[in-house]
Structure formats: structure tokens, C-alpha cells
Amino acid sequence: MPVRSCDVLIVGGGPAGSTCARELVRAGLDVVVMDKHAFPRDKVCAGWITPPVVQALHLDCADYAHGRVMQAIHGFRTGMIGAETEVETRYDEPASFGIRRCEFDHYLLQRSQARMRLGEPLKTMARDGGAWLVNGEIRTPLVVGAGGHFCPVARKFGSQPGPAEAVVAAQEIEFPLPPRERSAYRVDDETVQFYFCADLKGYGWCFAKGGYLNIGLGREDPHKLPEHVSEFCRWLRRREVIPGDLPGKFNGHAYLLYPESRRPPATDGALLIGDAAGLAYARSGEGIRPAVESGLMAAAAIIEAAGDYRRESLARYASRLTARFGKKSPAESSSSWLPQGIRQTLAASLMATRWFVRHVVVDRWFLHAQQQAIAAGTRYGVQR
Ligand SMILES: Cc1cc2nc3c(=O)[nH]c(=O)nc-3n(C[C@H](O)[C@H](O)[C@H](O)COP(=O)(O)OP(=O)(O)OC[C@H]3O[C@@H](n4cnc5c(N)ncnc54)[C@H](O)[C@@H]3O)c2cc1C
């Protein structure tokens, strides 16, 4: 069915867009999701989600796991790349899950029950009598930009992905590694391994999930990223963690960490959510949780705005993002107040300390255990 108008047009069908769409559809709005790709599509990602994502999405794990990868993770093996010492941290309950983005994003998008325009990129977006005219044919009073780091809606409002923005860049590869082949390597289904770069500007990971292995590395300083990835892989091979030959090449993508993002999340008739707004957690680079949470927060603000989509009316969304993710402080991502040599020595010794690894690195930096999940259907105004 051709779509000529809708209450809300969401550009991008990733976790941010599909979460926002589902909430709005449930509230009775006519929602269209436009994505330049047909689904299922893959997304460059490790596919590691934390329990608050499952809670915020009200994901029925048993239903989801039917025919899809939903790997419960009970532990983490951590250390510094190149060092022998590593620390294992175990949890009785699942501390995270491994999913595949080609399955996860498709499931969420289908579940949203929104109308779809898939395989269609946003090309034009112009003001037309108090509404937007998108691609010359869809009229809508509100556009939600959920198109990831290079979201065209964010560009329209002045964001210019490129050297002006301090991005994190990451590469990953995911390939089938059946359990019988995997027994030759030091990986197991329940443990994520992640190891920090010596200069502390990034980390590499490796984990098995339901017959697949995902290996990758991300850095705040994208300079020489492929060399860092190769060095990491050589080190993993020496330790017999991964196979000698990898079937395929690494795929890369860039995105913004929240403290570095200067993108305005709300303007007249438009909101940005997920990577389009630049919301990923600073230390871990986790972006799916902020994508889902911002999708929920945007939906709540849209419902409350009740058709008044002026910037002032949508501003509550921006202030709730700040209440949730904190005031911007770029230093948070790099702890640059200590000289590099001291930081490296300190880090190596802290990373060998069980208490520090469990309570600070894993619980605080990676699982954000101090921050409760937010629930669909609430107003998200004051929770931290
Ligand atoms: C290597 C790597 C590993 C990562 N690993 C993890 C991890 O394990 N866990 C985690 O939480 N985060 C991880 N992240 C971050 C995470 O992938 C993102 O933060 C997350 O996907 C953001 O979701 P989103 O919905 O905002 O955007 P996306 O998932 O990027 O979805 C955006 C959608 O917009 C569509 N789109 C783009 N342009 C247009 C256009 N012009 N017109 C129409 N549609 C368009 C795209 O096709 C896409 O479907 C990783 C990132 C990288 C690069």
C-alpha cells in the first residue's frame, strides 16, 4: 500500500527506531518506519546485549530464542592485550546475552506492527505548510531520526559526521564456528573475553554465541585501527583462542560516544534517537541499550506532546536524556588527567585485581548495574 501520510515517520529500523515505533503504535498512532535496507539486514556489531535491554523491550526470551541465537552469558575473561594475566568474573544469573543483529533487529521491527517502507532511503525532507514532505510524497507532522551515525535527519539539522566529531571506530567479524570445531580453541559459549589496548584507548573482544564466533576491536582513536585489529588477532591466535584463518574480512563502522556528542536531540517537528543522537556509553561503547531507552523516551515525549511538535514542546525529551545519561563531560571517556605512562602501569595492575575488575570494570563500566532498566509504558522523567 502506498503511504501518503502518517502521524509519525521514523527513519531507520534498528533497535532505536523499532522500539519507538512499537510504543507509538501501541498508543494508537499511525507510524511508518522507513529504512534504506530490506530486512532482515545485518549491522556491524558484536551483538552483546545487557539485561536492562531485555527488560526494557519486555523481550520474551523463550519466544525469541525459538530459531534464533540468544546466548546467556555468565562470565567475563578480561585483561590487557599482550599480557599473560587475565581475570575471570562469574555470575550465577545471566549477566548479558549474545544475539545476532540480523535476527534481533528483524524481530523487533516486525513486532512493532508499524507500517513499513523498507529498501527506501530518505532522500528529501522539506517543510510544507507546517508538516514535512518526505521523498516528495509522504506528509507527516513529525520525523524521528533513527538512522544511526550517518542519519540523514541528523544531517538535515546540522550534524556533519566527519573529522569535526570525535567518534569511536570499531571493526568486527562474525562467522559460524560449530561447537565441535570450537573445542580446539579457548572459547566457551558462556564467557565474553575482552582485553584493553595498552594505551587504554579501546578494547578487543571475542565471544561465542550459538554456533557463531564474533571477534572485534573498537577505539576512541580510529588511527591505525586495522593494525590494532591485526595485532589483537595475532595475540589471540598465539593463545589459541581463535582459528588461524578467519573466513572473511572485518567490517567497520563509526559512532559517537555520549560525552562527545553535540547533536541536538529535538527541534521543530523532529527528534533524534539512538546513534543518530550519539548516545553510546562512554567506557563500553554499548549502544543498543541507549538506542532502546531513547526510543522509549522519545515515544513518551511524542505521546505527551499530543500533536504539538514545536521545539519547546519536544524539549522534555532532551531534558530526560540528560537526566538519564548525565551532563556532558568529554573527559569521562579518556581519563586524561593522569600522564599516559602512569595510567598504563596503573591500569595493568588494576586489571589484574579481581575486586576492581568485577565491581568497576564489569559491573560499572560494562553492565551499568548501577543504572536500573527503564520500563515501557512509564514516563521516564526522573529515573536515573
Ligand atoms: C563493531 C561494532 C560493535 C558493536 N557492538 C555492540 C554491542 O555488542 N552491543 C551494543 O550495545 N552496541 C554495540 N555497538 C553499537 C551499536 O551497534 C549501535 O549503537 C546500535 O546499533 C544503534 O542502534 P540504532 O537503532 O540507533 O542504529 P542502527 O542500528 O545503526 O540502525 C539504523 C538504521 O537506519 C537505516 N538508515 C541509515 N541511513 C538511512 C537512510 N538514509 N534512509 C533510511 N534508513 C537509513 C539503516 O539501514 C539502519 O537499519 C557496536 C558498534 C560497532 C561499530
Structural descriptors:
11 helices, 19 strands, alpha/beta, 6-stranded mixed sheet, 384 residues, 7-stranded mixed sheet, binds flavin-adenine dinucleotide
Give a short synopsis of this structure:
By secondary structure, this protein is of the alpha/beta class. The protein has helices spanning 15-26, 51-56, 61-65, 101-112, 152-156, 179-182, 225-238, 288-305, 311-325, 340-350, 354-366, and strands at residues 8-11, 31-35, 48-49, 71-73, 75-80, 86-90, 96-98, 115-118, 125-128, 131-134, 138-140, 142-145, 167-176, 191-196, 202-209, 212-219, 251-256, 266-267, 270-272. The model has no long low-confidence stretch (mean pLDDT 92).
Structural features, described:
A seven-stranded mixed beta sheet has the order 6-5-14-15-16-13-17, with helices on both faces. A six-stranded mixed beta sheet has the order 8-2-1-12-19-18. The mean pLDDT is 92. With 384 residues, it is an alpha/beta fold. It contains eleven helices and 19 strands. The site of flavin-adenine dinucleotide (FAD) has 41 residues, from helix 1, strand 2, strand 13, strand 16 and strand 17.
Spatial order of strands in the largest sheet: 6-5-14-15-16-13-17
Radius of gyration computed on alpha carbons: 21 Å
Could you describe the largest sheet, including whether it forms a barrel? 7 strands, mixed
The number of helices is 11
Helix content: 25-40%
Number of strands: 19
Flag low-confidence runs.
none
- Alpha-beta content class: alpha/beta
The ligands bound in this entry are:
flavin-adenine dinucleotide
Q: Distance N terminus to C terminus?
A: 42 Å
Shape category: globular
Report the β-strand fraction as a percent range: 15-25%
Which whole number gives the mean pLDDT? 92
Order of helices and strands: EHEEHHEEEEHEEEEEHEHEEEHEEEHHHH
